[in-house]
Amino acid sequence: MKAVASDMIVPLHKHPYSTSECVDEVLYGMVVEILEDCGTWVHVQTAYRYKGYCLKEKLLINEGKAGQWDKEAKHVIIQNFADILAEPKIQSAKIATLVKGSSISLVEDSSLNPEWVKVKLVNGEIGYSRSYWIRERIVELDSEEAFRENVVQTALSYLKAPYRWGGKSPLGIDCSGLCSMAYMLNGVYIYRDAQIVEGFPIKEIPFEKIQKGDLLYFPGHIAMYMGNGLYVHSSLGGNEVSINSLNEKDSNYRKDLATSITAVGSLFG
């Protein structure tokens, strides 16, 4: 059975109760597969094969509607936070607020000012958003060079977002959430945790081959390499998404990480 996230952020828990560890977040409009009905909770699996428990009330559970939504929702929110309004004007009432990475369906309306787009929400409600807060979902890679640049810039767009265990939005994001969202928003699903897993597109490469957009793995941590010895990551120690260096002469050098790299991963390995 398929379902669609109908809350702004749907926490996925390790166990089916609210005080259990949050292992991931499903953002608005993302489609999941229900593996087990647990009463008020359901056990679900995401498109990137991550599993967890969430409250049933936070999903639209309907195989037909979920399948239709998956076909229609071809756009994503790229603004940190985007209000969906009842009318195409800033004075209008807010219907919903969506975070970066949420999926949305566009409705054609040639009468609109180009500054606005008409959208359909998961529940079928119609609203409006600024056109430059939304872009078409990327489903194919551009050139390797363009992808590397784009994935780094996407990761950097989360700078200063607070660290949140299991998070993957500007409200709070963890290390693997940052890297997986940066790749997802550029059309690639990678493994959600800080390790290289067979069956996903990231392959281990020698450190000497590292390039912009490749991934650095540490014990229990992951970062994205930016080039010139710099990397961006969401650090529990740093409390937010920040930039650090592998060069011991740089002021933002972190010896604990620079000396504990366990692997380098690349989509192009």
UniProtKB/TrEMBL annotation:
Domain SH3b: 71-138
Name this protein carries in UniProt: Cell wall-associated NlpC family hydrolase
Domain NlpC/P60: 145-265
Keyword field contains Membrane: no
Organism of provenance: Ureibacillus thermosphaericus
Residues spanning the signal sequence: none
The keyword Hydrolase is annotated on this UniProt entry: yes
Family according to the record: Belongs to the peptidase C40 family.
Molecular-function GO terms, alphabetical: cysteine-type peptidase activity
Keywords in alphabetical order: Hydrolase, Protease, Thiol protease
Gene Ontology biological process terms from the UniProt entry: proteolysis
